[in-house]
C-alpha cells in the first residue's frame, strides 16, 4: 500500500485515504460552446495514457481536497504532489528521483 | 519410545508425549514436534500421494517449502483444513490428520494408475488433450478430471474461527531470525530504534537450531541464541515467532501472518486463530536464508528421499533419526555434515555419493574417520523401493560417460543440490537479480532494504553473522542513527560450497526417467525438455506449459532446477532464459487472515435511519440500498409482498401514506455565489427561483449523460437545500467539490453533506395537507403551493418542510434534526390515525413513482441516457449559456436519430415483465436477434394491470406500436405508451 503526500495536510498518509481523479491539467474550457465537436470530444475523452511519469489528480478523502501528482505508472511511485491550481511541475531530476 | 527417536536429543520435550492420529491410526509424538517429525519418529515416511500421478511421497523438507507432505488437519467441528504442511503443523493433543489424494488407502491407491500412464500426462497435457473433440469436454474430460483433480478436500462449512488484524509502525523490520537476522537485530537495536524481528518457525535461531555444535563467542550455538534473544528482549525488540512475512509491498509495507492458536491443545475461547499485521517499516532487513535444492534423478521422489539439510534438522531440532542406514547424494559440502551428524548418532551411513571430482580434503577426512565410503565423480541413476526407498544405484562418471553402477542398500537417501537464496520477498519489490554462475543473487533494490546472510549467497556462520551485523548497522544508519560494528568469533564453523546441475547423468533411458523437478505438480525433467522441443522459449511459457513452479509452494525447490534444464535445452545461459516472478503470499495463507474482522456483520457498515427501530418493531421487511438498510414493505399477518405493497399503494392513494425518506442524500450549498454555482452545476435555471420555493434539479456529467436528480429548495438567497438519490449522495458531493475546488475556485461557496443531519419523513395522499396543517407552525398556507419549502416547526420540532410529490398525490417531506426523527415519526403516526395513515416502504414508493412516470436515476438510466432520452428536456435551462454537460447535448451522436428513449410499456396479456428483459421489433427474425432496448422498471400497479418502463430505440416515435419481449416461456407482446400511467393532468397535486 502506497503512502501519498497530501499537499494540503502536509502529511504522507495511506493510499486507502485517497481516490484517483483522472488526468491532471485538463482545464474545462472557459466557453465550451466555442469548441468544435472534435475539440470537445478531445476534451472529454482523449487522455495521455502515459507509460512512466503521469500527471494526475488525486483526492484526499480525509480533508476533501483535490490535488495534482506525478506518478510513474511503471513503478507506481509518486514523484511529487502539489496543490490544485499550481502550474504543471516540470519533470526535474529531483522530481524523478 | 520409537527407535528413531534419540533419547534426550533435540529441542522437543521428552517428558511430554502428545497423541495424535494420522489416517485413523493413533501415534505418539512429543511436545515440540511437527506432524512430520512425529511421523518420522514413528518410522513413517509415506505421508501422501502426489497430485497428478498419485505417487507415494514423504516429507522432502523440514520447513514451509514442503511440496509433498500435505495433509488434511481437523481441529474439531467445522475446522478442517486441507493442504496443511506436515513439516509446519505443530503437534498438539488430539490433532486429527489425514493423507490426501488417495483412494481407497494411502498404501494402495487406485489413482496410481496415472503413474503407469504417465506418457499421456506429459507437458502440455491440458492444452493438447482438450483441443479435440469439443463434445468430449462436457461428457468425458470435465467429469473425469474434476473427480481426479484437486489437492485435498475443500472444507464444506463456514470457518467458525476469528481472525484478527493489526497495524504496526516500526523503525526496522527484520525477516528471519537465524544467525544473520539475530545479528542484524542486535545491531539495529542500538541507540533506541524500534526493532521488530519475525520468524515463521515456532522458535527463533534458524539454521543454528540444526547446528548445535557450532560455537559463537565461545558459546554453543543454542546457548548463544538464548543469550542473544534475551538481550534483544531486554532492548525492547519485538520478537514474533510463528509469523510469516507473506508479502513485501510498496514503501516498505509488509504483510505478516501470525499463527496464534493452531499449536495449542485447547485454544482460549474466542481467541483469534491468526492475526494479519500490516507493517510499515523505516528499514527492512531480509535475512530469510536459503532453501536447499533437490538433485534431479530417476526416482528422486520416493518416500525416504529427502533433502540432507532436512535430515539434519529432524536430527537436531526434533531428535529424530530419519533412517538407520542413510545414503547421501550431493553436489554441495553441506550434506557431509548431515551425514557426519547422523553417523555420530548411531546411523550407518551407506555412502556419500558426490557428483564432484575432488571433495574437500577435510570432509574426506571426516568421512574416513567415521568409516563412510565416499564416491566422488559419481551419479545416481535410479532408486528402488515401492513405498520407501530401499536402494540407490550409484555409477561413476568420466567425462560424459556413465560407467557401471552398483546398488547401495539404504533406508533413506539424503540429497543436496546446493542452496537457493530465498529471494521471494525481495522479488515482490521488483528488485532485480543477478546470475553468479550458480544461482540468482539480489542486485538492484527498489526499497529501503538490506539483504543479509545466506539470502545473498553467503555460507558459513562467521560470514553470515558479520554480514547480518553489517546489514543491521546499515539499516540503523539509513534511519540517520549511528551504532558500532559488532564482531563474532566462530569455532566449529561449517563453511561450504557446491555446484548446480541439470539432471544427473544416467546410463538409463532418459525418456523413461521419472526425475522430478516440481514434486507438488509432478513435473519431470523430461517435461521441461519436451516443452522446449515443442517451441516454448521463455521460462514463463515453459512454466505454464509444464505447470512447473505453479503449485502452492510457488516452486521454492523447483524453479532453479527447472531453469537450469530449460536453459540447457535451449543452449542458453540461465539469465537469458529468465526467472519466473514470485508473487505474494510467500506461503499459502488462509482467507480468514486476509478478511480479518471484515466478515459477516462487520464486512460492510450497515447504515440505519433514526426511524429504523420503529420499522423493525413494526414488522418491516428490509432491503439493502447502497449501504443503507431500508424498510421494503410492512406485511400484515398473512400478506405476501405483493398483497402488502398493493395495500400500501391503495391506502396512500385513498387517504394517507407515510414513508421514511431519511436516506435521501442532502447537501447544503451556501454562500454569496451559491446561485451561480447551482446554475453551473445543474441543468435547470436557478436565478429566478424565489426563496421558499423548490424545483426538480437534474445533474449531468460533462458528457451530457444523467448523473443524478433530486428536488432542491432555495431557503434564502444564498442557501440551497439540495437532495440527491440515496446511492448518489457521496458521488454528487465529490463532483461538486471537484468543480468548486479545481474549475471555479473563485466562487464563494461552501458545500456541506447533511444527509445524516436530517431525518426525512414523506407524507403523501389526499389527506396529507389536512393531517399535517395542525402540527405546523410558521408556514403561511395561503402561499405554500406545490414545490414550496419553509423553515418552521412540525409537532413542535424545528423543521425544514418541503411540499413536493414523488407519488402524484399531495405530498410533503418533513426534515427534522436526526435526533428528533423518531419523535417526529411517532407524532405523525399518532396524528395520522384519524386518516388511517399507512406506513409504506421502498417498494410502494417505487410503484407509486412509476405510475407517475418519475424516473429513478440508475434504474431507468444507466449512464448513457441524456435528458432528451429520458423525456426531461423541460428541465433544461435553455437560456443558460453554460452548465456541466451542456456542450455535449449538441454532439453529433447525442442529437442523432434512433437513440434509446424512455417510454412506457403495457403487456397485451396483462402479464408482468421482467426488469432487464430485452426487446425486439420482430420475434421471428433469425438469431441473434436485433435488440432495440430493455425493460428498466416493471411493477404490479394500483390500476389493475402491471406497468413497465423501457428504453427503446426511437421510442418516442413509436407510440402505440407493439414490441416483443422473448422470454424462456414464450414471447410477450407489449404496447409502447407514455411513461405517465396515472393522473397525466396532475389534477391530484392541486388538491
Ligand atoms: Zn489532506
Automatic annotation (TrEMBL), chain A:
GO biological process, one term: tetrahydrofolate metabolic process
UniProt xrefs under InterPro entries: SoxD, SoxD_sf
Highest taxon, organism lineage: Bacteria
Any coiled-coil regions, as ranges: none
Descriptive protein name: Sarcosine oxidase, delta subunit family
GO molecular function: sarcosine oxidase activity
A Pfam family recorded for this sequence: SoxD
TrEMBL record, chain B:
Protein EC: 2.1.2.10
Domain GCVT N-terminal: 613-880
Superkingdom classification of source: Bacteria
Signal peptide extent: none
Keyword annotations of the record: Methyltransferase, Oxidoreductase, Transferase
Domain FAD/NAD(P)-binding: 171-436
InterPro entries the record matches: 2Fe-2S-bd_N (IPR042204), BFD-like_2Fe2S-bd_dom_sf (IPR041854), FAD/NAD-bd_sf (IPR036188), FAD/NAD-binding_dom (IPR023753), GcvT/YgfZ/DmdA (IPR028896), GcvT/YgfZ_C (IPR029043), GcvT_C (IPR013977), GCVT_N (IPR006222)
Any one GO BP annotation for this protein: tetrahydrofolate metabolic process
Residue ranges of domain Aminomethyltransferase C-terminal in the record: 900-983
Location of the region described as Disordered in the Swiss-Prot/TrEMBL record: 58-77
Gene3D superfamilies named among the record's database cross-references: 2Fe-2S iron-sulphur cluster binding domain, sarcosine oxidase, alpha subunit, N-terminal domain (3.10.20.440), BFD-like [2Fe-2S]-binding domain (1.10.10.1100), FAD/NAD(P)-binding domain (3.50.50.60), Probable tRNA modification gtpase trme, domain 1 (3.30.1360.120)
Any GO molecular function: aminomethyltransferase activity
Enzyme class: transferase
SUPFAM superfamilies xrefs: Aminomethyltransferase beta-barrel domain (SSF101790), FAD/NAD(P)-binding domain (SSF51905), Folate-binding domain (SSF103025)
A Pfam family hit: Pyr_redox_2
NCBIfam families with a match to the protein in the record: soxA
Family, similarity comment: Belongs to the GcvT family.
PANTHER family in the record: AMINOMETHYLTRANSFERASE (PTHR43757), AMINOMETHYLTRANSFERASE, MITOCHONDRIAL (PTHR43757:SF2)
Entry protein name: Aminomethyltransferase
Species: Paracoccus haematequi
Amino acid at each position: 500500500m502506497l503512502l501519498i503526500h497530501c499537499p494540503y495536510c502536509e502529511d504522507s498518509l495511506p493510499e486507502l485515504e485517497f481516490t484517483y481523479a483522472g488526468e491532471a491539467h485538463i482545464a474545462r474550457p472557459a466557453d465550451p460552446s466555442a469548441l468544435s465537436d472534435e475539440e470537445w470530444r478531445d476534451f472529454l475523452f482523449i487522455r495521455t495514457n502515459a507509460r512512466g511519469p503521469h500527471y494526475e489528480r488525486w483526492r484526499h478523502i480525509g480533508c476533501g481536497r483535490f490535488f495534482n501528482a506525478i506518478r510513474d505508472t511503471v513503478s507506481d511511485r509518486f514523484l511529487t504532489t502539489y496543490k490544485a491550481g499550481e502550474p504543471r511541475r516540470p519533470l526535474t531530476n529531483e522530481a524523478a528521483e | 519410545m520409537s527407535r528413531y527417536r534419540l533419547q534426550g536429543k533435540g529441542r522437543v520435550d521428552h517428558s511430554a508425549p502428545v497423541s495424535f492420529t494420522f489416517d485413523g491410526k493413533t501415534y505418539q509424538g512429543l511436545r515440540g514436534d511437527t506432524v512430520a517429525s512425529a511421523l518420522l519418529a514413528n518410522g513413517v515416511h509415506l505421508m501422501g500421494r502426489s497430485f497428478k500421478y498419485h505417487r507415494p511421497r514423504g516429507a522432502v523438507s523440514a520447513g514451509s517449502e514442503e511440496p509433498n507432505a500435505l495433509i488434511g488437519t481437523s481441529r474439531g467441528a467445522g475446522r478442517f483444513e486441507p493442504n496443511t504442511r506436515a513439516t509446519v503443523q505443530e503437534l498438539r493433543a488430539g490433532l486429527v490428520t489425514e493423507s490426501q489424494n488417495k483412494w481407497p488407502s494411502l498404501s494402495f491407491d487406485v489413482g496410481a494408475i496415472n503413474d503407469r500412464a504417465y506418457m499421456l500426462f506429459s507437458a502440455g497435457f491440458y492444452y493438447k488433450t482438450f483441443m479435440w473433440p469439443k463434445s468430449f469436454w462436457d461428457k468425458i474430460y470435465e467429469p473425469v478430471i474434476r473427480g481426479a483433480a484437486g489437492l485435498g478436500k475443500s472444507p464444506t462449512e463456514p470457518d467458525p474461527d476469528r481472525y484478527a488484524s493489526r497495524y504496526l509502525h516500526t523503525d526496522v523490520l527484520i525477516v528471519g531470525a537465524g544467525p544473520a537476522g539475530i545479528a542484524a537485530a542486535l545491531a539495529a537495536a542500538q541507540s533506541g530504534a524500534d526493532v521488530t524481528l519475525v520468524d515463521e518457525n515456532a522458535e527463533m535461531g534458524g539454521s543454528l537450531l540444526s547446528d548445535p555444535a557450532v560455537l559463537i563467542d565461545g558459546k554453543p550455538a543454542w546457548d548463544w541464541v538464548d543469550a542473544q534473544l534475551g538481550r534483544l528482549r531486554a532492548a525492547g525488540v519485538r520478537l514474533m515467532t510463528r509469523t510469516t512475512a507473506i508479502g513485501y509491498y510498496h514503501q516498505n509495507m509488509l504483510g505478516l501472518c501470525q499463527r496464534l492458536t493452531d499449536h495449542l491443545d485447547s485454544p482460549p475461547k474466542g481467541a483469534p486463530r491468526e492475526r494479519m499485521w500490516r507493517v510499515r517499516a523505516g528499514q527492512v532487513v531480509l535475512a530469510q536464508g536459503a532453501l536447499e535444492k533437490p538433485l534431479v534423478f530417476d526416482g528422486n521422489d520416493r518416500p525416504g528421499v529427502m533433502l540432507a539439510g532436512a535430515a539434519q534438522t529432524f536430527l537436531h531440532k526434533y531428535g529424530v533419526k530419519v533412517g538407520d542406514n542413510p545414503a547421501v547424494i550431493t553436489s554441495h559440502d553441506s550434506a557431509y555434515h548431515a551425514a557426519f551428524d547422523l553417523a555420530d548418532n548411531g546411523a550407518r551411513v551407506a555412502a556419500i555419493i558426490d557428483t564432484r571430482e575432488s571433495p574437500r580434503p577435510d570432509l574426506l577426512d571426516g568421512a574416513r574417520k567415521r568409516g563412510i565410503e565416499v564416491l566422488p565423480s559419481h551419479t545416481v541413476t535410479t532408486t528402488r523401493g515401492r513405498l520407501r526407498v530401499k536402494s540407490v544405484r550409484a555409477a561413476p562418471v568420466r567425462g560424459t560417460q556413465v560407467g557401471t553402477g552398483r546398488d547401495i542398500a539404504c533406508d533413506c537417501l539424503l540429497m543436496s543440490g546446493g542452496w537457493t537464496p530465498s529471494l521471494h520477498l525481495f522479488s515482490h519489490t521488483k528488485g532485480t537479480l543477478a546470475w553468479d554462475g550458480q544461482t540468482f543473487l539480489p542486485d538492484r533494490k527498489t526499497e529501503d532494504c538490506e539483504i543479509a546472510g545466506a539470502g545473498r549467497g553467503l555460507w558459513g556462520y562467521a560470514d553470515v553473522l558479520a554480514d547480518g551485523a553489517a546489514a543491521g548497522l546499515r539499516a540503523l544508519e539509513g534511519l540517520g542513527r549511528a551504532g558500532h560494528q559488532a564482531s563474532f568469533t566462530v569455532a566449529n564453523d561449517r563453511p561450504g560450497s557446491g555446484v548446480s546441475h541439470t539432471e544427473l547423468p544416467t546410463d538409463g533411458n532418459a525418456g523413461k526417467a521419472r526425475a522430478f523437478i516440481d514434486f507438488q505438480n509432478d513435473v519431470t525433467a523430461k517435461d521441461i525438455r519436451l516443452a522446449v522441443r515443442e517451441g516454448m522459449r521463455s521460462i514463463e511459457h515453459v512454466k505454464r506449459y509444464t505447470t512447473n513452479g505453479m503449485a502452492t509452494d510457488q516452486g521454492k525447490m523447483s524453479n532453479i532446477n527447472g531453469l537450469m534444464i530449460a536453459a540447457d535445452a535451449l543452449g542458453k545461459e540461465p539469465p537469458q532464459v529468465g526467472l519466473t516472478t514470485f508473487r505474494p503470499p510467500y506461503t499459502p495463507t488462509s482467507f480468514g487472515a486476509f478478511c480479518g474482522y471484515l466478515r459477516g456483520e462487520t464486512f460492510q457498515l450497515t447504515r440505519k435511519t433514526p426511524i429504523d427501530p420503529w420499522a423493525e418493531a413494526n414488522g418491516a421487511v428490509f432491503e439493502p440500498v447502497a449501504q443503507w438498510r431500508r424498510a421494503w414493505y410492512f406485511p400484515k399477518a398473512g400478506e405476501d409482498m405483493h398483497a402488502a405493497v398493493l395495500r400500501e399503494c391503495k391506502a396512500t392513494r385513498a387517504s394517507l401514506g407515510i414513508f421514511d425518506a431519511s436516506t435521501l442524500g442532502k447537501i447544503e450549498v451556501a454562500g454569496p455565489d451559491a446561485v451561480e454555482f447551482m446554475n453551473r452545476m445543474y441543468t435547470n435555471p436557478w436565478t429566478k427561483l424565489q426563496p421558499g420555493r423548490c424545483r426538480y434539479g437534474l445533474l449531468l456529467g460533462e458528457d451530457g449523460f444523467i448523473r443524478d436528480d433530486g428536488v432542491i429548495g432555495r431557503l434564502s438567497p444564498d442557501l440551497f437545500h439540495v437532495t440527491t438519490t440515496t446511492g448518489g449522495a457521496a458521488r454528487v458531493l465529490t463532483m461538486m467539490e471537484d468543480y468548486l475546488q479545481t474549475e471555479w475556485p473563485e466562487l464563494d461557496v461552501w458545500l456541506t453533506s447533511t444527509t445524516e443531519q436530517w431525518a426525512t419523513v414523506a407524507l403523501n395522499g389526499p389527506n396529507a395537507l389536512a393531517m399535517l396543517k395542525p402540527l405546523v407552525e410558521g408556514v403561511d398556507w395561503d402561499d405554500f403551493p406545490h414545490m414550496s419549502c419553509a423553515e418552521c416547526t412540525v409537532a413542535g420540532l424545528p423543521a425544514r418542510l418541503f411540499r413536493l410529490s414523488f407519488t402524484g398525490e399531495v405530498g410533503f417531506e418533513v426534515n427534522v434534526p436526526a435526533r428528533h426523527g423518531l419523535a417526529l415519526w411517532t407524532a405523525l403516526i399518532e396524528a395520522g390515525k384519524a386518516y388511517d395513515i399507512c406506513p409504506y416502504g421502498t417498494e410502494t414508493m417505487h410503484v407509486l413513482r412509476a405510475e407517475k412516470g418519475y424516473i429513478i436515476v440508475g434504474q431507468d438510466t444507466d449512464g448513457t441516457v441524456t435528458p432528451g432520452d429520458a423525456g426531461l428536456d423541460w428541465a433544461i435551462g435553455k437560456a443558460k449559456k453554460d452548465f456541466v454537460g451542456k456542450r455535449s447535448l449538441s454532439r453529433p451522436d447525442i442529437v442523432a436519430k434512433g437513440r434509446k428513449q424512455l417510454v412506457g410499456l403495457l403487456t397485451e396479456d396483462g402479464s408482468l415483465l421482467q426488469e432487464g428483459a430485452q426487446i425486439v421489433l420482430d420475434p421471428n427474425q433469425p438469431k441473434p436477434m436485433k435488440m432495440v432496448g430493455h425493460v428498466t422498471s416493471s411493477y404490479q400497479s394500483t390500476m389493475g394491470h402491471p406497468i413497465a418502463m423501457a428504453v427503446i430505440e426511437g421510442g418516442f416515435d413509436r407510440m402505440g406500436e407493439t414490441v416483443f419481449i422473448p422470454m424462456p416461456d414464450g414471447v410477450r407482446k407489449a404496447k409502447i405508451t407514455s411513461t405517465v400511467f396515472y393522473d397525466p393532468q396532475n389534477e391530484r397535486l392541486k388538491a
